Amino acid sequence: MIGIAVLGAGRIGKIHAANVAANPKAKLVAIADPFADAVNPLAERLGTEAMSDCMAAIERPDVDAVVIGTPTDTHVSLLLHAVKLGKAVLCEKPIDLDMAKSEEAAAEVERQNGRVMLAFNRRFDSTFAEMRKAIDAGRIGDVRQVIISSRDPGMPPESYVKTSGGIFRDMTIHDLDIARWLLGEEPVTVTAVGSRLIDPSLRQYDDYDTAMVILQTASGRQAHINNCREAVYGYDQRIEVFGATGMLVQDNLRPTTMRVWTAEATDAREPLLNFFLERYTQAYRAELDAFVDALSDDTEMPTTVRDGVKALRLAECAVESVRTGRAVTV
Amino acid sequence: MIGIAVLGAGRIGKIHAANVAANPKAKLVAIADPFADAVNPLAERLGTEAMSDCMAAIERPDVDAVVIGTPTDTHVSLLLHAVKLGKAVLCEKPIDLDMAKSEEAAAEVERQNGRVMLAFNRRFDSTFAEMRKAIDAGRIGDVRQVIISSRDPGMPPESYVKTSGGIFRDMTIHDLDIARWLLGEEPVTVTAVGSRLIDPSLRQYDDYDTAMVILQTASGRQAHINNCREAVYGYDQRIEVFGATGMLVQDNLRPTTMRVWTAEATDAREPLLNFFLERYTQAYRAELDAFVDALSDDTEMPTTVRDGVKALRLAECAVESVRTGRAVTV
Amino acid sequence: MIGIAVLGAGRIGKIHAANVAANPKAKLVAIADPFADAVNPLAERLGTEAMSDCMAAIERPDVDAVVIGTPTDTHVSLLLHAVKLGKAVLCEKPIDLDMAKSEEAAAEVERQNGRVMLAFNRRFDSTFAEMRKAIDAGRIGDVRQVIISSRDPGMPPESYVKTSGGIFRDMTIHDLDIARWLLGEEPVTVTAVGSRLIDPSLRQYDDYDTAMVILQTASGRQAHINNCREAVYGYDQRIEVFGATGMLVQDNLRPTTMRVWTAEATDAREPLLNFFLERYTQAYRAELDAFVDALSDDTEMPTTVRDGVKALRLAECAVESVRTGRAVTV
Amino acid sequence: MIGIAVLGAGRIGKIHAANVAANPKAKLVAIADPFADAVNPLAERLGTEAMSDCMAAIERPDVDAVVIGTPTDTHVSLLLHAVKLGKAVLCEKPIDLDMAKSEEAAAEVERQNGRVMLAFNRRFDSTFAEMRKAIDAGRIGDVRQVIISSRDPGMPPESYVKTSGGIFRDMTIHDLDIARWLLGEEPVTVTAVGSRLIDPSLRQYDDYDTAMVILQTASGRQAHINNCREAVYGYDQRIEVFGATGMLVQDNLRPTTMRVWTAEATDAREPLLNFFLERYTQAYRAELDAFVDALSDDTEMPTTVRDGVKALRLAECAVESVRTGRAVTV
Fold first, then answer.
1. Are the Cβ atoms of A231 and D247 closer than 8 angstroms?
2. What is the pLDDT of residue D142?
3. Does C164 touch chain B if contact means CB atoms closer than 8 Å?
4. Which of A286, B298, C10, D110 is the most buried (most CB within 10 A)?
5. Other C-beta atoms within 10 Å of B287: how many?
6. Cα–Cα distance between D108 and D89 in angstroms, integer?
7. Which fold is adopted by the domain B123-300+306-329?
8. What would the CATH number be for the domain defined by C2-118?
């Protein structure tokens, strides 16, 4: 059994804690969060110990690994502390909003041969995983174009926008990781445009609500991402991978397979799953299980801090491309 | 060039006349209908001669073939007159509502080696034809079950209901023909139920608005048909053919491929095509072309009066099954 | 906490036991099965006690409720023993293959006001439940026709066929329950046909591999069921409910939303989920949770032994209809 | 009746000639083409006069309008000759591959108030037209993003590539026109990337086989286009228009609605329609009819030479963007 402490008892910490508790190879040793109102009921419900100090949780001798789901600005220090003590880490994205700090953290982890997995949950969703598997199996030949449509159900609150790092670092970054992963080659140029079609006041934060990106790899493979902070029909997550001998298309996941026919419309499906927590429930579980498997089998981490740095680097390039109107070399 | 006269300038006559005019191997010699107000403008628009007497049209020396689109009770006399004169015939369904009279007509046509095609238009629809072709090509192995969903957009007027022969002879008959054709074997038993869920007053005509049928062939192949006189979402025409190594499914044809996503529903398609004239436009054209091809190539008629008799016989069995609560042997 | 013992450690017992263990309001007190090789590893894995005697498990004072997943011929005695002791029961279908014995068991449970839920798992599947909810909300008006396509992936072994009670009692029965439930009215007549298209040797067991059924209610609502023991493309579960103001259609559930385009075919989906255990994983979980909720909230059982008797009665009628070629009155 | 001469008896001229012949308000007066082998059988089949001299055809007193389907380098001279004589024109795209010459032609047409329609056939396809209508009806609110996937079934022959003007002027130009039309605002910046993933030898023509484009309008609306010269699954034409209150999605048109289920794949559709002549058959017909209607009703031309110039200008910007790696201002 692998002893795991979950750091952070907020929205994402709750999910990780429940998934650790449900994993037969892991033992949820503790949940740590300075906010007692969050951590105490969660720990009680899952039958584990509540702690207020994340550093202390890392240091416990019965803790083999930690899951970091705390606010972004604490990630690097928690992560490096765990690595220094030889503990494995599953860390939420992003490593940090600052590129240089992220780079340094990644370099330090690599220097210490740290066992750190970055939580790119989408890669573990059954459909995403099946697409990657189908590509690897040669079912569509060499990848030529990846098209990602990714839209949130509604604008985040202004308090969030202020500290989010902007649409490219906060939202597009997930799609940039998936684009890298599905292209099978590193992008070498990034072109992006941003618009304020929903909230013009985003100008004060140099931010956008609607964006498009093009990536190109050295061999010429191309990826396109379109994002919008608000889609009235719900959280929209679709992907198309076009290759030399075929194409894979991923539709949205829905709560049921029911279709409705009325005098107004035929063959209509119900609204989409609300947001990422509902859409990627299975993915979060599979991600945690993959982390535990990598530890128990002593195999490579399926995603690394380096992946996080690379996705952030692409987001930085997108920001620069919007600013300069140029294709930015990665 | 094959000289063709169209008999009947009503709804279906108009379609046949236009299709004859558009066929490069045929010449539309005349349109005949006792109602001058119907036939004159139609003939003028298509640049052909208007006649009031259908028998006279058949007898014209420049007429090689006739298309019969007149009221049902005139079909047999026109048909047999044409056959006697050695003219080919494309005749609308049904031959006659009376089983004995239909049998006699078919026997007479066969005695005289008459060249008569019965207008089972659906068989010529591109999707129906593709399904039959896929079965013939062995793509789904031996057929096991055929399921036909066939619903009209709305109740016909009472005046029509009175003389229609009832839902089984008027509406189900089309599906019975398709079931025979897709099963690839003759049904030997017919079981049916009928309900009055829309209009209880149909009881006075011994008629129903909602029906289900099961057919079984000698080897045990099965077909199910469900009908309703009213579907609020439009004219519904779907088929499933399940076989030993696969299944073919036919969806409704629609005017566009557009899908609509809103806050209320996602992936919704537009309403269906209004009714059979719109749904089977291409099929009527292909049917006429097949008739002309059979004449110009001197090949077998793709559908015969005997097919009409057999479909009517199945409809008769369905009526009897509803009345007796028994599986009726054909 | 409700103390629950699971009786039976076979395929279905394993699922129930895991679902009890995962339910936060229940405690898995014991698993009982005479086969030590089945029950011991399962009990160990789930951290509970293994027992060899089902009756003894029922009698434990810490057992408030039992889940019966043993062979069919043991259901009635276990069920009645539990009811006599005032224990609640979730019992697998069927109650018994014998109609009279099932009736007696149901009457006895009702006499004793027993708390017994019959395990009609499909009703708890999210899509099935959403369909029933949509009907109740009036989204399609009064139900007119229900069409159920339900096919197994492959023939069961002969050993199973011998004791299964035949396709109508073993396979169609699930669809008969769903038809009753979706029609919203009791069927009053049953018509059925059976064929041996896969295995002619089924004749020795008076059994069939391919079947079609029509049900009709007193007001005239109609349901059709088509079944086949073998579908090369997998476990096929589709439903259509056609009503006065709309229609609901349920497609198969699949492991991913991926579609594949190649030179041979476009927009193709992957094979279906293997069989009922995979297709209805979520339904089994929701069924167990509904049982526990009914106990903890002291509300009515969502399905009852009476439902089981009614479904079995419809299956008996279908058998008789095939034999006599008549519509059988329920 | 409007007298029309069709200039050019090649692939596209044949289609236009048949559509003129089928239009009840038009008379096909002549078909002109210097290649007797092409023009003579076509004229004979359609019952009209064959001519060898396009200029002479324009000058005929019984010609009110001409349809230009000749090689691109003859478009401008034929077009301007017709306009000078007061004849209406339906001209195939592009006006000319040279931007300056196209601009001059457009200016000349406008100076003379010429009645010239440029043949942007896709706008007349029933699904494209329904999308524009749905946007105009406010069904999805203000447009935010347009995504166009447009791929050809296979590489054109080298002889064609040499003179085509390159992928952006030859292929992307159709999508650029549709993007302008669906955005409802003029793009102000163009960003593009090009790759040689199929045929590296395209480098000698400064051409590409795979391309992506982003357009942005003054208010910030965005469009993305992805193109490839070769899609193994056929001619791929899909569009998504995402707006403030909904989204419209256009799937490919197919010859039938049949879906195939086998042990390998389920719900598969047949291959796509072969190429643009098959995919846009109905659109070519509707385009010609719209031209004739505009003439007979004396209304505005639905598309103009100016539209052609604007699409070509966007293609030029795309070429420049690929070359410079910059967003190019239109």
1. yes
2. 98
3. no
4. A286
5. 26
6. 14
7. Dihydrodipicolinate Reductase; domain 2 (3.30.360)
8. 3.40.50.720
| Averaged pLDDT for residues A94-121 | 96
Question: What pLDDT digit, counting tens, does each position of A12-48 carry?
Answer: 999 999 999 989 899 999 999 999 999 999 999 999 9
List of chain B residues with pLDDT < 70: none
Q: Which residue of B has its CA nearest to D18?
A: B22
C268 CB neighbours in chain D (<8 A) are 265-269
Residues 182-211 of B with CB under 8 A from A: none
d(CA C142, CA D105): 64
List the one residue out of C78, C98, C105 whose CA is nearest residue C13.
Answer: C78
Q: Determine the CATH number of domain D123-280+306-329.
A: 3.30.360.10
Mark yes or no for CB contact A147/D149 under 8 Å. yes
Q: Give the nearest chain C residue to A25 (CA atoms).
A: C45
Beta bridge partner(s), residue A190:
A215, A328
D 268-327 residues with CB below 8 A of C?
268-272
- List of chain D residues with pLDDT < 50: none
In chain B, CATH 3.40.50.720 sits at: 2-118
Q: Between C139, C252, C258, which is nearest A248 by CB?
A: C258
Q: Which of A191, A210, A216 sits opposite D222 (nearest CB)?
A: A210
Shortest Cα distance from D197 to chain C (angstroms)? 18
pLDDT at D198: 98
The pLDDT value given to residue A163: 87
Contact criterion met (CB < 8 Å) for A249 and C255: no
Residue D1 contacts B where some CB pair is shorter than 8 Å: no
Residue among C145, C228, C246 minimizing CB distance to B210: C145
Going by C-alpha positions, the residue among D248, D274, D251 that lies closest to residue D134 is D248
CB contacts of C17 in chain A (<8 Å) are none
Question: Which segments of chain B belong to CATH 3.30.360.10?
Answer: 123-300+306-329
The Cα-based distances of C129 to B265, B324, C181, C208, C290 in angstroms read: 18, 37, 11, 30, 12
Q: Where in chain D is the domain with CATH 3.30.360.10?
A: 123-280+306-329
B266 contacts A233? CB cut-off 8 A: yes
User: To the nearest whole number, what is the mean pLDDT of chain C?
Assistant: 96
User: What DSSP string describes A60-72?
Assistant: -TT-SEEEE-S-G
